[in-house]
Design brief:
single chain; 321 residues
């Protein structure tokens, strides 16, 4: 394993969590000292407007283990984690929220699961949530069930902010948009498939209010579909658009042949028949033919874009001799 400067890097993305920061840092320090870990805490201020950055500057107080990054505006949690991952030096990288709902006391057990049991990712599982059952718990259960079905990763709480990663994992994935919800899936797609979960204690928020609404579940579902599509067809778009286009074209072609044969049969029998262009099925066949051609052409365009991408031949190498 690659040597790292520290045992732990603790990344804390935050937005307007000024009141909770001193308590959180004190709690983290207490746990780190009890277990004699070498560590760093990296606060990522995502454009806060409540004085959080000034508080972070005061908390460092000459302590080189406490670091901070401040965005000029609010970019989102994924951007904050991306910047934190870039500078993390610890053997194990832990992410946690700044609202005191995640307990630093869970970190030692998660650290051992990575370093001693060989897991790449350990995701927290908030079995007993301290949130509103209607606006948070029920949508969360539905969201996580969908995520398990699509990703194939059996995690009960994909979106839990408390996670531990082997350093190599965070250095080989790119978090963007709102993909922070699916870091375990990103890790799996990068070849880090030793993923597990650990039940963790979830506490009530002490200060302020949640920055996330119900709309995050809709956005999360759309992001999940995007991530699945890119994972499955990102480097081979013709496999999706080509097959779909061929299918649609042959459906339209079969409908056209059926219409023509039906007309000829009725005409030979002297029975009443309608003109081809008077039949609704004709227009459905025409739409299917056009869609088939358009999808097939979209596959060609996708292939050209994919072949021109600078990362088309980027692969994660596990080892070499």
């Amino acid at each position: 394993m690659t040597d790292h400067a520290k045992d732990l890097s603790i990344i804390v993305p935050l937005y307007n969590e000024n009141e909770s920061l001193p308590d959180l840092l004190s709690w983290i320090r207490k746990v780190m000292e009890e277990h004699a870990y070498s560590y760093e805490v990296i606060f990522i201020d995502d454009g806060s407007t409540d004085g959080s950055w000034e508080t972070i500057r005061g908390l460092t107080d000459g302590d080189e283990r406490i670091r901070g990054i401040s965005f000029r505006r609010n970019y989102g949690k994924s951007a904050a984690l991306y910047e934190g991952f870039k500078v993390a030096q610890g053997r194990v990288v832990v992410t946690m929220d700044a609202d005191l709902q995640d307990s630093p006391e869970e970190i030692p057990a998660m650290y051992k699961m990575v370093t001693e049991q060989g897991y790449d990712v350990v995701s927290g599982w908030k079995q007993h949530r301290q949130d509103n059952k209607v606006t948070k718990n029920l949508p969360s259960k539905l969201y996580n069930a969908t995520a398990r079905w699509i990703t194939g990763i059996k995690l009960h709480d994909m979106n839990c902010g408390l996670k531990a990663y082997r350093n190599e994992v965070v250095k080989n994935i790119e978090v963007y948009g709102e993909m922070h919800r699916y870091i375990p899936y990103l890790a799996k797609n990068a070849g880090f498939d030793k993923i597990t979960e650990k039940p963790v204690r979830h506490q009530k928020r002490r200060y302020g209010k949640s920055k996330f609404g119900v709309e995050r579940f809709v956005n999360g579902f759309l992001d999940l579909l995007s991530l699945w599509f890119l994972s499955a067809f990102g480097k081979k778009p013709m496999h999706f658009f080509g097959y779909t286009g061929i299918f649609m074209f042959f459906v339209g072609f079969a409908m056209t042949v059926w219409i023509i044969i039906a007309k000829l049969v009725h005409q030979a029998q002297g029975a009443y028949y309608r003109a081809v262009t008077d039949q609704p099925l004709f227009y459905l066949a025409l739409v299917a033919l056009i869609l088939g051609v358009m999808l097939f052409l979209a596959g060609f365009v996708g292939e050209m874009i994919s072949r021109s991408a600078p990362e088309r031949n980027r692969y994660n190498i596990k080892d070499q001799i």
